[in-house]
Amino acid sequence: MDRYWLCLFWAIQTITSIGYGNIAPLTATEFAVANGLMLCAGIFWAYVIGSLVDVVAVSSKLQNEYVTRMDEANQLVKNFQDSKLPESVTGSTTGVKASKRVRRFLTNQKEHSTKNWMDDGNSLTISEEFPTLDLLSPELRRECALHLTHAYLETVPYLSSKYLSPDDQAEIALQCRTLEFAAGEHFSSHPEFGRGILIFKQGFGFTSRNLIKKASTWTRALKGHALDVNEVLVEEDFYKDKQFVYHFVNFTKVLFVPRSAIMNILEKNPVAWKECARWRYFRAALVLESLRDADTLMEVV
């Protein structure tokens, strides 16, 4: 039996590359203990090395994707016919070249994004942002969606838990999207999902209302607070040129609640509409109507 312990000891020493030292076990018990220690140490060392390799591989993949996107961006700006266009053409008020803004946006996007940045870009539902949600049971998925968005939805009075059930809030949550904007961008409606409420998660911005003779009124956008909760209820073509426009001062992430999702929920919840949303609708309509009358008066004067 001692011979078998000795053979196993020699084999483990050789495979694990521990080597043959001057200090060695002598009895069968010592050989057995040494074999166990060498196996445990070898497994632990392999785990450590594997973890380090995995970390390097993931960071390398993200960095490679970033380098690829920057190369594509450089190719894009090289084909610009004009290196800098006047503000009257671009509509931008930042005074920064578009090429510089493109590169800065990609860098900020990489630094603040989730792993889905490599695949999905800057418009994600919470299921796309957190793919684990699709693997869960409907009940657990609903609960997790509420954990992710409940605090944001509570800032919108007619979407709060005062009027909506947890199921309704979860339905809204799963239709929300995370949008990203570069410094100097402005936004009034999404090209695919139309108008909606923007709730700032990161960054800083303002809302303005374009009036006659380029006059504007400005309201600061606070992190974690919703703006335009009234006027989003008004129909798309109701004094569209007087509705809010968002302007972003730096790289910004927002939670976007589409108007279509809001109106669908309000149709299913007459109490939320009658006790809260309709009064906000009337208030927004009156504000827009007064702005039209003010412009008409200024034109007459």
Write a concise keyword list for the protein shown above:
301 residues; alpha+beta; 10 helices
What does this structure look like?
It is a single chain. Mean pLDDT is 76; it is low at 114-121, 211-217 and 296-301. The strands form two sheets. Strands 1-2-9-4-7 form a five-stranded antiparallel sheet. It has a four-stranded antiparallel sheet with strand order 3-8-5-6, with no helix packed on it. A hairpin with a 5-residue loop joins β5 (205-210) and β6. It is elongated. α1 (2-15) runs parallel beside α2 (28-78) and α7 (138-153) crosses α8. It is α+β, with helices and mostly antiparallel strands and 301 residues long. It has helices at 2-15, 28-78, 87-90, 98-112, 117-120, 126-129, 138-153, 166-173, 259-268, 270-300; strands at 123-125, 177-181, 186-187, 196-202, 205-210, 216-221, 226-227, 244-248, 252-258. 22% of the residues are buried. The chain contains ten helices and nine strands.
